[in-house]
Structure prediction request, 317 residues.
Amino acid sequence: MSKYVKISCMSPPIKEVDTGQGLEGVVLQMIAKWEEHLQHVLPEQPDLIVLPECCDDPTFKGMGTEWLYEYYRYRGNRLLDYFASVAKTHRCYIAYSAMVEMEDGTFRNATLFIDRSGEVCGIYHKNHITIRQKSTSDTLYGKEAHVIQTDFGRVACLICFDINFDELLQQYVEQKPELIVFSSAYHGGLMQAYWAYTCRAHFAGAIWRPETCTLVNPVGEIVGESTLFYPFVTRTINMDSVVVHYDYNWEKLELMKRKYGSKVLISDPTRLNAFLISSETEEFTIQDIVKEFDLELLDDYWIRCRDDRNKEGHLEP
Prediction:
């Protein structure tokens, strides 16, 4: 498993379509849109491409919900098949977010995770759709959230409104994802860093323009962001990393840097008193470093703090 993962997040404008060509014409226009926009990131040879929520939604003046769901039914798996062919050709994963019709005729707001062979290796159904979406459509709330295993690590998916719900966050915390993939129609603000830090995971967000796509590290630092002129961003992240606290680790980290120098990296976001440390060499993993210097991981430190508080005689009467 490679420790370095190159991730591209995209936020092109929603496609205005010509409905005079019928539903078939609209589907072809959506495929043509993504053929054009993917050329911005495919030359980078990413390991993963993250697309925004409902990435193949068209728009036109006066478009209503009834027409949109008619489009979904007609479109079927056409865009999924297109993205699967791209993933297979370019040997990358693609997080494809779209409205999906189920066998009973209801819909789910979903992320379909496509692997390097063009196969769907995981599916996430948005657990927290909005009241408005539920009241105006046959879309149902998802009820499960499982990490997806990839060749670069464990991935948790969430979609837009999901980012506001702590119960979903806690489900993922227990599963220890290494990367959070966020397909969305809005940015989420401080919640992006909150999710990344709470899960001790990297965070990749693809959000519709005019918002920005972001890549955030496990201590809440933005390591990549799209811009107005470049509505896409590609960065390489190091998955071979852990989060540790300042307490009881500071002297050990000093010894670590003196011995290994640039072979280990310490990312200090300041004000947090927690650091992200990563191995920048093939000579050893970060777990080797943790063992060699007896570093205490952040979550283990929190457990020890709680245990100390609960010891006899430590809590005020």
About this structure: The first strand starts at residue 4 and ends at 10.
